[in-house]
TrEMBL record:
Pfam families: Glyco_hydro_92, Glyco_hydro_92N. The keyword Calcium applies. One of its GO terms (molecular function) is hydrolase activity. Monomer. NCBIfam families: aman2_put (TIGR01180). This is Sugar hydrolase. Keywords: Calcium, Hydrolase. It comes from Echinicola rosea. Its cofactor is Ca(2+). The keyword Hydrolase applies. Residues 281-745 form the Glycosyl hydrolase family domain. Residues 14-274 form the Glycosyl hydrolase family 92 N-terminal domain.
């Protein structure tokens, strides 16, 4: 029976959106639906991106707009990234207030100077598709829910006199004085407001349209312009635009809407967004929220989450394991996000309006993070969506003037953030695993063209010399290693579709990792364009050593496509295992990551940096040695140490679901070490049992017999009753349905998977 018609559990009860909202998890607690365009969430401060022309490191804490330790809420904006290490968005911030009108947000140290409000976590609740908080300074209970493209607010005013709703069109995340390029707003009638906002920053040309509707008539409205120093303003000076004037335009605008309310009255507001037009936003609102029943909209959002969460049903050792598991699923299904109107129209990379024909268009591709485990997870749990994501990447390529596939893209913009060309990995993995079966030549050609863009990030030197020289392009070792892996992925795709010449060319390029390995030191290290090693090498350091967000100890293990060859290069099984053992037991002094935003002590075990992505495959490398059992206790240790309940439960940025995807795979007992391969490496499952309800109607069950907190080792693994002699299963084993059984023990079976 297909999973979609089976009785569903209310698994939303195990999701805690507060996990990761403290410290460096960078998650948001607000209301959204799976892969939704709208992420309606509270913002707790107005930290600027720069101060006196210099980057303000304090802003890094606010990548998701919310920090759990804050004591005030500025308002509720409609767009947020989840778990990222850089930011943007925070569009269309709304804040209900009462009493004297204030249009300045104020400060945390002096909240009474602005419209923000104090709040307490005791009167705050977050769950899938719902967020609620009491705004203490106003006695207003604010509730939020959402559909894919519409954010819905319900405000209950304990005191109805002087009720206001602020619409701050200046507010944003990673904000600075010149971020707003232009804003435009029209009051269409006494319940409907439309407009748009154009910003620059991480995305340098980003335009978002909105339609805002209230369930009660606006009694009075107005706005204030800031920094209104245009050289020429035409003849608009003949009007008083600040009060009850139906259209306003400028760089920086804050608007307000007043309502005649009684004590205890509710006010409901719906704000729809569109990348195309206000007409598109209105259509989105009419299609997704035709009525005003807040509770029904909320329940539909919960139902949409339960549909997705029921794709995996688990029993666990602890109740808190269920919370961590389903919160990880929730975080994994927050993005990439739908980018387009209900009619399929969206703004393309060329700034023209396109229509997605036969697919849903997606945006926000944090590919340096998500190619590793999130997109492979989608090939198991969300193949239809991942297929559309690949089509979205190919549309990006078609619209790119370079032309290139996405590197890190959002809202019709390429940000050029981070390294590699990992769209190629995502596409290759989907092709090799049979998720994508059409337009294959286009997919391959787009990947090849991207990989041969000589002027991008040292690729020209990489193609010429077989490595990226450090004196040509920084982070050269990381780039060389990641390019080599991506090249291997392209070769796998080419082989799959019978393009043997390309397969051979990129298989040869995939060996370039050898060119930055120093046999004397035993580490990957930066090389100069004259072929000499860069001097002053410190394998524990990141800065100036040829690496990005990692050191030589961790990055030297990044050859996911050729682990056996890497192990041989590093001295064979015995020496490699000793090296890998020491990674988890040695000490990494604070000075080596003190100036690195993305790495903190909470994400480190020994010198193993789990709070950042380049090491996520490392613990599974034992499977390519004669001591596969050594991965098992370490996997369970990482699962326990890096993923906990509570606001500070994540050991690093969730990175748009990558950290969560690692947890999900590892808790189920297998992991995609090299996306682009059909193989998964086996580990030590955390679940007692899991049923994966696949999109094709099949089910794949994971069973851990004798599972307990102490039984972290695996004595035997069976697939459909047959004992496995190697620590791997294949994608087809999962997709066709079946049963994977782990026999758990307290002590290791040191001969597991032995052929003796």
């Amino acid at each position: 029976m297909a999973w979609g018609v089976q009785a569903q559990e209310d698994l939303s009860q195990y999701v805690d959106p507060m996990i990761g909202t403290a410290k460096m998890g960078h998650t948001y607690p607000g209301a959204t639906v799976p892969f939704g365009s709208v992420q309606l969430s509270p913002d707790t401060d107005t930290i600027p991106y720069e101060v006196n022309g210099r980057y303000n490191p304090e802003v890094y804490r606010y990548c998701a707009g919310y920090q759990y330790d804050d004591v005030t809420i500025v308002g509720f904006s409609h767009t947020h990234f989840s778990g990222t290490g850089h930011s943007d968005l925070g569009d269309f911030l709304m804040m209900p207030t009462s009493g004297p009108l204030q249009l300045n947000p104020g400060t945390e140290t002096d909240p009474d100077s602005g419209y923000r409000s104090r709040f307490s976590h005791d009167r705050e609740n977050a769950s899938p598709a719902y967020y609620q908080v009491e705004l203490d300074d106003y006695g207003i209970n604010a509730e939020l829910t959402a559909t894919t493209r519409v954010g819905v607010h319900r405000y209950t005013f304990s005191e109805g006199e002087d009720a206001h709703v602020i619409l701050d069109l200046m507010s944003g995340i990673y904000n600075y004085d010149d971020k707003n390029v232009w804003t435009f707003m029209r009051v269409e009638n006494d319940t409907l407001v439309t407009g748009f906002r154009e910003t620059t920053g991480w995305a340098r040309t980003r335009k978002v349209f909105f339609a805002l509707s209230f369930d009660k008539p606006i009694a009075k409205y107005g706005n204030q312009k800031y920094d209104d120093k245009q050289a020429y303003r035409g003849f608009w000076g003949r009007f008083n635009e600040s009060e009850n004037f139906p259209e306003i335009a400028g760089r920086k605008i804050r608007a307000y809407f007043d309502f005649d309310l009684e004590d205890g009255d509710e006010l409901i507001a719906k704000l729809a967004i569109s990348p195309v037009s206000t007409e598109g936003a209105i259509k989105n609102m009419q299609e997704e929220t035709p009525g005003w029943d807040f509770d029904a909209i909320h329940q539909a959002g919960v139902d949409s989450w339960n549909k997705e969460l029921n794709k995996v049903q688990v029993s666990t050792i602890r109740d808190t394991d269920k919370v961590n598991f389903y919160t990880a699923m929730y975080h994994a299904f927050l993005g990439p996000t739908v980018y387009g109107d209900v009619d399929g129209k969206y703004r393309g990379l060329d700034m023209n309006i396109h229509e997605a024909e036969g697919f849903t268009n997606y945006t926000s591709f944090s590919l340096w993070d998500t190619y590793r485990a999130l997109h492979p997870l989608f090939n198991v749990l969300q193949p239809a969506r991942n297929r559309d994501m690949v089509k979205s990447m190919l549309a990006h390529f078609d619209q790119s003037v370079h032309p290139m596939l996405p590197i890190w893209s959002h809202y019709a913009n390429e940000n050029w953030c981070m390294i590699g060309y990992h769209s190629a990995s995502v596409i290759a993995d989907a092709v090799v695993k049979g998720t994508v079966t059409s337009d294959l030549d286009h997919a391959l050609n787009a990947s090849v063209t991207t990989a041969k863009t000589a002027y991008f990030d040292g690729i020209g030197a990489y193609m010429e010399k077989g490595y990226v020289p450090e004196d040509v392009s920084g982070a050269s070792v990381s780039k060389t290693l990641e390019y080599a892996y991506d090249d291997w992925a392209i070769a796998q795709m080419a082989t799959k579709i019978g393009r043997e010449e390309i397969a051979q060319e990129f298989a040869d390029r995939a060996g370039n990792y050898k060119n930055v390995f120093d046999h004397q030191s035993g580490f990957m290290r930066p090389k100069l364009k004259n072929g000499a090693w860069k001097q002053g090498f410190d394998p524990l350091d990141t800065h100036g050593q040829g690496f990005i967000e990692g050191n030589a100890w961790n990055y030297s293990l990044y050859v996911p496509h050729a682990p056996k060859e890497m192990i041989g290069m590093m001295g064979g099984d015995t020496r490699f295992v000793e090296h890998l053992d020491s990674l988890f037991s040695m000490d990494l002094p604070d000075r080596y990551f003190a100036n690195t935003e993305d790495i903190s002590r909470e994400g480190i075990i020994g010198n193993y940096v789990h709070g950042n992505e380049p090491s996520h495959h490392v613990v599974y490398l034992y499977n390519w040695t004669d001591q596969a059992w050594k991965s098992q206790d370490k996997i369970r240790m990482i699962l326990r140490a890096m993923y906990q309940t509570g606001a500070d439960g994540l050991g690093g940025n969730d990175d748009f679901g990558q950290m969560s995807a690692w947890y999900l795979f590892s808790a189920l007992g297998f992991y995609p070490v090299a996306p682009g391969s059909v193989d998964y490496a086996l580990g030590s499952p955390l679940v007692k049992e899991a049923t994966i309800n696949l999109e094709n109607g099949n089910t794949f069950t994971v069973e851990a017999q004798n599972q307990s907190e102490e039984n972290v080792y695996v004595s035997k693994v069976l697939l459909n009753g047959e004992v496995l002699s190697e620590p791997f299963i294949q994608h087809a084993d999962i997709i066709k349905g079946g049963k994977l059984t782990f026999i758990m023990k307290r002590r290791p079976n040191k001969k597991i998977f032995s052929k003796d």
